[in-house]
Design a protein that fits this description.
The complex is a heterodimer.
Chain A (H helix, E strand, L loop, with lengths): L2 H25 L11 H6 L5 E3 L3 H10 L4 H15 L2 H16 L6 H6 L15 H17 L3 H14 L13 H13 L3 H14 L12 E7 L4 E5 L5 E5 L9 E8 L2 E13 H6 L5 H40 L2 H27 L15 E7 L10 E5 L8 E5 L1 E2 L6 E6 L14 E3 L1 H7 L9 H10 L7
Parallel strand pairs in A: 2-11
Antiparallel strand pairs in A: 1-12, 2-7, 3-4, 5-6, 5-8, 6-7, 8-9, 10-11
Chain B lengths: L10 H13 L30 H17 L11 E3 L5 E4 L6 H16 L4 E3 L4 H12 L18 E13 L5 E14 L5 E14 L6
Parallel strand pairs in B: 1-3, 1-4, 2-4
Antiparallel strand pairs in B: 4-5, 5-6
Helix pairs in contact in B: 2-3
Classes of the chains: A alpha+beta, B alpha/beta.
Chain lengths: 472, 213
């Protein structure tokens, strides 16, 4: 046996032994307990405790995962609810995600644990990257707008834009043109013309192609197309977060939009690119968590080096011990033997630490986001708005699909919104017998137990009010 | 062969360390159920952020009620002036979504209770239902009630309010700061003259765990 193969054998033995120890230890861990009900279920449910059937899987996942993936499930559920037309449920889900992100995690045990070298970043409660949070503000505000709550719509859009300022790279902070424009649109619908002009101008400063809404425009068209940015791991230990997939390379920054109503000639407008989500994702700049992950990767590297060095020392010591044994030098044999055992132990510990160190970046993502948002404004006769259909054919780089939508009135204003989305969603009819799933029974069985010492009256009240949340 | 073994007796500790390190990588279980507890609405709750919370709404409304009643406005009138405190006259201009009724309802109810009849409050929220009842009386579907027929009350003052916020974030250390300002103004419904105004300000800062920055 050569020296090299002996070293390799020693290193492998150490790794195998360490692996067996880990496996033995982890194999005895009990399975994760079920979470305390589903906050998402309560956010999605109507007064009767019913959730639109297509959203029920998110409730089940949320119940199983607890707070760790609550925001992620809420983002996905809210987006799907918007696609199927369950506006109230959509707003509830997005509001839940908003409330969770707004909570400052100053002493959160899961967050603290995620900083540990031996726990992956994905252990933390998901709050999303800045572009995902900003898009939450977009959808949350859109939901408010469609419900006629313009104050909160503006607040949500502004909040979304503020999330974009998390970028450590000063150059790209707060450059969400779509959100600035939407704040202006909410002002426009309330006839706050001066404020609307300011916000439209702010959007134009970021993207010069965006034209302010004309004073008499009463329709906002939003075209959501393309695929969400895909997160990927890079670096030797997967410690760096990067984005794969195709960025919006199309030169077609305009999409032709047709307005058609029965008995009236079709009118064409052009929607311009207002947001490139890939651009927002990839211009984030350095994150504090990147430094933590880099530290973990360096530790893993050092532990691997120590393991290899220990194995090499053990191998060399075995050779020396063999010489000592052949020459009858008992002292040499003892020292070399002890050194071999020491080297083996260092190799074992190093190998164990290296394999236990989890430097990989968190790549959980809001996969149902679009890749780009286009917008246009137009004037449609108020009486014909209900019968007007809006359609657009996307450029080949964005899938080339044709999408159609109706005009949705913004309550209390003369405005309408048409949202054209390439996202696929199951057909859902709220009037169908199987349109909803009753989660009330499931929630009752998982509601928190009443604390000891409460009076029966207080206990009843406590159980009754447990799932109540702020509604807007 | 007499090998001296420097790690004799330390194997269990090493094995435990390795076991501990290995198990630390397992995903954490969801948090256990938490018993329902009553908490004081005037103090910070278990879940906190830099935005307006229950204790802030309590502080804002209490402060405004005290100041309005102490302003001497009520002493100027022989008959209780009629005031409209309506959610539609409260606006939000900032980055925080809020249920405006939480502020307006608490303000109106506490003002009504504390004024002890020195101020009269008009509810425009009820106009739809009172109009229906008036119509039933007009058509003699119902009788005229026990209070007799009267015109719908006109308003002497409108209490307007606004919540505005300004956010700041430090790119270097991730500290987030939100300045929130509540402003209220009592405006004469005939002349638009301002009879009383006050504001409440607060600034909160916090920093998320580094893992979120």
């Amino acid at each position: 046996m050569t020296t090299r193969s002996t070293a390799e054998l020693a290193r492998r033995c150490a790794g195998l032994l360490a692996g067996v120890l880990f496996a033995t230890g982890c194999g005895t861990k009990p399975p994760a307990a079920a979470g305390a009900g589903s906050a998402l279920g309560r956010a999605l449910a109507d007064a009767g405790g019913r959730v639109p059937a297509p959203l029920a899987p998110f409730v089940a996942s949320d119940r199983a995962d607890g707070t760790r993936n609550e925001v992620l499930h809420a983002m996905h559920a809210g987006k799907l609810a918007l696609e199927i037309g369950a506006l109230r449920a959509s707003r509830g889900a997005f509001d839940l995600a908003y409330q969770r992100i707004e909570t400052v995690y100053a002493d959160n045990p899961a967050a603290a644990k995620a900083r540990s070298r031996f726990v992956p970043e994905a252990t933390k409660d998901f709050k999303g990257e800045p572009f995902e949070r900003a898009m939450l503000g977009y959808y949350l505000g859109l939901g408010d707008l469609l419900q006629g709550d313009l104050d909160n719509a503006r607040a949500a859009f502004r909040w979304g834009e503020f999330q974009d300022t998390m970028s450590a790279s000063e150059q790209y902070q707060g450059d969400m043109a779509s959100l600035r424009f939407l704040v202006g649109w909410a002002d426009h619908c309330e006839r706050r013309h001066r404020s609307a002009e300011e916000n439209f101008r702010a959007a134009t400063e970021v993207r010069a192609e965006i034209a302010p809404a004309a004073p008499h425009d009463n329709v906002l068209v939003l075209v959501e197309a393309g695929q969400a940015p895909q997160k990927a791991r890079a670096g030797q230990h997967g410690e760096a977060l990067t984005y794969s997939g195709v960025a919006l390379t199309t030169p077609d920054t305009r999409v032709a939009v047709q307005f058609a109503a029965a008995g009236a000639p079709a009118v064409t407008a052009h929607a311009v690119l207002a947001e490139d989500i890939h651009w927002q994702a990839t211009t984030l700049g350095g994150r504090a968590v990147d430094r933590i992950l880099a530290g973990k990767a360096a530790f893993k590297e050092n532990a691997t080096t120590a393991a290899n060095t220990g194995a090499a020392v053990a191998t060399a010591a075995v050779d020396v011990a063999r010489v000592g044994a052949l020459s009858g030098d008992r002292n040499m044999l003892n020292i070399a033997g002890a050194t071999a055992v020491g080297g083996l132990l260092i190799s074992m510990v190093g190998s164990g630490l290296a394999s236990a160190t989890r430097a990989e970046a968190d790549i959980r993502r809001w996969s149902s986001l679009p890749g780009a948002v286009f917008l246009a404004t137009a004037r449609v006769d108020g009486a014909a708005a209900a019968a007007t259909r809006v359609s657009a054919t996307l450029p080949p780089a964005l899938g080339g699909r044709s999408v159609t939508a109706a005009l949705v009135p913004v309550p209390g204003t003369p405005c309408h919104v048409a949202r054209l989305s390439t996202a696929t969603a199951p057909a859902w009819n709220a009037q169908a017998a199987d349109a909803f799933v009753d989660i009330a029974a499931a929630e009752r069985s998982t509601r928190p137990a009443v604390a000891a010492g409460d009076t029966p009256e207080r206990a009843r009240d406590a159980v009754k009010t447990a799932p109540v949340r702020g509604s807007f | 062969m007499n090998l001296s073994f420097p790690f004799r007796g330390r194997w269990p500790a090493l094995a435990l360390a390795l076991l501990g390190a290995g198990c630390a990588s397992a995903p954490p279980p969801p948090p256990p159920a938490a018993p329902v507890r009553y908490t004081d609405v005037g103090t910070q709750g278990a879940v906190a952020g830099v935005g307006t919370e229950s204790q802030d709404i309590v502080a804002v409304t209490d402060s405004m009620v005290r100041d309005l009643l102490a302003s001497g406005l009520t002493a100027q009138f022989t008959r209780p002036p009629r005031i409209l405190v309506d959610v539609n006259d409260f606006s939000v201009d900032g980055s925080q979504r809020i249920n405006k009724s939480l502020v307006v309802d608490r303000l109106r109810i506490n003002l009504q209770r504390a004024s002890r009849g020195r101020l009269a409050f008009v509810s425009r929220e009820s106009l739809g239902s009172t109009s229906r009842e008036r119509e039933l009386k007009d058509k003699r579907v119902t009788d005229g009630g026990t209070l007799g027929r009267n015109a719908v009350a006109g308003v002497d003052f409108v209490l307007r309010g606004r919540m505005a916020t300004q956010d700041k974030r430090s790119a270097s250390n991730g500290m987030v700061e939100r300045y929130t300002q509540f402003s209220f103004e009592l405006v004469e419904a005939e002349t638009d003259l301002s009879a009383w105004a006050n504001l409440y300000e607060m600034q909160k800062s916090g920093r998320d765990d580094a893992i979120y920055r």
